[in-house]
From TrEMBL, chain A:
Annotated protein name in UniProt: Transcriptional regulator
From TrEMBL, chain B:
Domain Pyruvate phosphate dikinase AMP/ATP-binding as annotated: residue spans: 14-53, 65-174
UniProt-listed InterPro entries: ATP_grasp_subdomain_1 (IPR013815), PEP-util_enz_mobile_dom (IPR008279), Phosphohistidine_dom_sf (IPR036637), PPDK_AMP/ATP-bd (IPR002192), Pyruvate_phosphate_dikinase (IPR010121)
Coiled coil (UniProt feature): none
Domain PEP-utilising enzyme mobile: 306-372
Descriptive protein name: PEP-utilizing enzyme
Database matches in Pfam families: PEP-utilizers, PPDK_N
């Protein structure tokens, strides 16, 4: 149950199918967990999407702090976050390069007709994925739930390689969105919150 | 190889880097540049090849008038934000130069070069200068100044100034800046020196330019100059105005506007008038709506009409608000930020890094995701067909091609540019 609350905390508002996919658990089980969390007042469902209440965010912060404390993982997470912050601007450069190209000095939407360019960007995503996996390997040793990001990032990359061009930067299951949630997770796990 | 920065230096940008070449130009024009020297691109290549540092660094450093120096990268090709900058360095300068050489090969810099087709063995020059302090006293500050408005092309200086701070605070967006014209009130002597310098530079480059500057105790110092940096609509206006000013001829004005630029200039833009703030356009398009200050409010307010979501920066908890909003503004972050990537993915116009925007919830605002401007109310749109500068440029294009038949602007420009190309080939 902790898992579903925390997964949703790092996602924002999301439909059941996306929560189940992120948690790596089947929908029926996740829905049952969400209903229990709703009874406790920690999550709410609005316009078809689930999200945390203010009390739910406070509860998740408390549980996550306890989890890090119990695993003695603070140092590992801090060091992982530092290394993540080196990779983060590169990922954002890559997403931007996938969405926009400079043509004659003017930024224009990438129309994906230049296959060589797309392959070059895709290859750079693969290279970056290799490096973020090293960070996630170490994190997952201390806090196994971070291993799920490896599966999700790899899944998005594989779908993009298979021709689903929106799976790098332009869908709610894209490499960028999973990475964005990982960024949020690291902040929440360190007890820092974006203002 | 080490070159002292002075007007007499005769070396191209691929030897001493773009930044140093600009500084030499400033010195030749008699403009104020802090004393310094440049470590050439060759020295960086040698370091990357065999780890050898150039000889003579500490000697050159001892020749500078201050103990504290700034150490900045400067490749022949612009790679903004990719490499290290070290300010207020004291003692031995070699470790700083070594760090900047090393920053050529960070993973991010390598990725950037692969994306932009820049060779990995190019290397960067390093500029070492006497440190000047924008945070020294109340008559000090830092900023960026454009010779013309880079968004509209209007022929008056435009930029930002931050009193009592160093240049890195201006770039980071951490502190709220003032419009450049604040200098005219607070430091009139500096203002007049700066505007004189900008018009001198325009005459030299025959193009709109921008400089980075520091004011130290009422004294102006220029730290960098670059031509260009205009939006497409501004580039058209500046080309026409420079031709009117006699700095370039009409053929050159037509030559400077590519068909890609013309296409970008044709995107409808917000009409002129009052502005609440200016950030950077991260996802194109114009959007009008009422301000929502949280994602939840955006979702609720969207049922009553269009909403502009305004956030300090974004987290995944804002994504449902992005989906509900017709436009996005952030106070922090750049063109490659989570907010920019998500806004583009959803096709929402977005302005990022509008540090000064603090609107009340419910206020009606309009944002322009091309220019980065934020205006109160709904100023309306100006389509490119109404732009008098564009009309004049295209009539000059017809003069060159000799064809005045009615046809789309891009064809008129392409015909003229092809004619210019043919003439150039025959010369």
């Amino acid at each position: 149950m902790t898992e579903v609350l925390h997964v949703l905390r790092c996602m924002g508002f999301a439909e059941l199918s996306r929560v189940a996919d992120a948690a790596g658990v089947d929908e029926a089980e996740v829905e049952s967990a969400l209903i229990d969390l709703a009874v406790d007042g920690w999550v709410t469902r609005e316009m078809g999407a689930w999200g945390l209440t203010a009390a739910g965010r406070a509860e998740d912060l408390r549980r996550t702090a306890a989890e890090v404390e119990a695993a003695g993982a603070k140092g590992v997470v801090e060091s992982a976050y530092e290394r993540f912050l080196v990779l983060n601007p590169e990922l954002l450069d890559l997403c931007s390069a996938w969405q926009l190209r400079a043509v004659e000095g003017v930024a224009v939407p990438n129309d994906h007709r230049d296959i060589a360019y797309d392959e070059r960007v895709l290859e750079l995503f693969g290279d970056l994925d290799g490096r973020v996996n090293i960070v996630l390997d170490e994190l997952a040793k201390a806090l196994p739930r971070f291993g799920r990001y490896q599966v999700r990032l790899r899944g998005a990359l594989d779908r993009a390689r298979g021709g689903a061009l929106e799976e790098l930067a332009d869908s709610l299951t894209s490499y960028h969105v999973v990475w964005f949630q990982l960024h949020e997770d690291l902040l929440v796990t360190l007890g820092q919150s974006r203002t | 190889m080490i070159w002292r920065l002075e007007a007499a230096v005769d070396a191209p940008a691929d030897v001493i880097g773009g930044k140093a070449a600009g500084l030499v130009t400033l010195m030749r024009l008699g403009l104020p540049v802090p004393d310094g020297f440049v470590v050439s691109v060759d020295a960086c290549r040698a370091f990357l090849r065999d780890g050898n540092m150039p000889a003579g660094l500490e000697g050159a450093r001892a020749g500078l008038p201050t103990e504290a120096v700034s150490v900045r990268s400067g490749a022949a090709v612009s790679m903004p934000g990719m490499m290290a900058t070290l300010l207020d360095v004291r003692g031995s300068v070699a470790p700083a130069v070594r760090e900047i050489f090393g920053s050529w090969n960070t993973d991010r810099a390598r990725t950037y070069r692969t994306l932009h087709g820049i060779p990995h063995d190019l290397g960067t020059a390093v500029v070492v200068q006497a440190m000047v302090y924008g945070d020294r006293d109340e008559h000090s500050g830092s900023g960026v100044a454009f010779s013309r408005d880079p968004t509209t092309g209007a022929p008056e200086p435009y930029g930002d100034v931050l009193f009592g701070h160093r240049g890195d605070d201006v770039v980071s967006g951490r502190s709220a800046t003032l419009p450049l014209t604040a200098l005219a009130d607070q430091e009139p002597t500096v203002w007049s020196a700066l505007t004189d310098a900008l018009s001198l530079l325009e005459k030299h480059f025959r193009e709109a330019c921008h400089v980075e500057f520091t004011v130290e105790s009422g004294r102006l110092w220029l730290l960098q100059v670059r031509p260009g940096g205009l939006t497409a609509r501004a580039a058209v206006r500046v080309a026409v105005d420079l031709a009117d000013d006699g700095l370039i001829d009409r053929r050159e004005a037509v030559r400077r506007i590519t068909s890609q630029c013309l296409r970008a200039a044709a995107v409808p833009r917000m009409l002129g008038g009052e502005r609440l703030a200016r950030g950077r356009g991260a996802s194109p398009g114009v959007a009008t709506g009422r301000v929502a200050l949280s994602a939840d409010r955006a979702v609720r307010m969207a049922s009553d009409g269009p909403v502009i979501l305004v956030r300090p920066e974004t987290s995944p908890s804002d994504l449902h608000g992005f989906a509900a909003a017709t436009g996005i503004v952030t106070n922090r972050g750049g063109l490659a930020s989570h907010a920019a990537v998500v806004a583009r993915s959803m096709g929402r116009p977005a302005v990022v890094g509008a540090a000064d925007l603090r609107p009340a919830e419910g206020t009606l605002i309009t944002i322009d995701g091309t220019s980065g401007e934020v205006a109160p109310g709904n100023p309306g749109l100006t389509p490119a067909v109404a732009d008098p500068h564009l009309h004049r440029l295209l009539s000059w294009a017809d003069d060159i091609s000799g064809d005045r038949s009615p046809r789309p602007g891009e064809q008129r420009l392409t015909a003229a540019r092809a004619q210019l190309q043919r003439q150039a080939n025959n010369d």
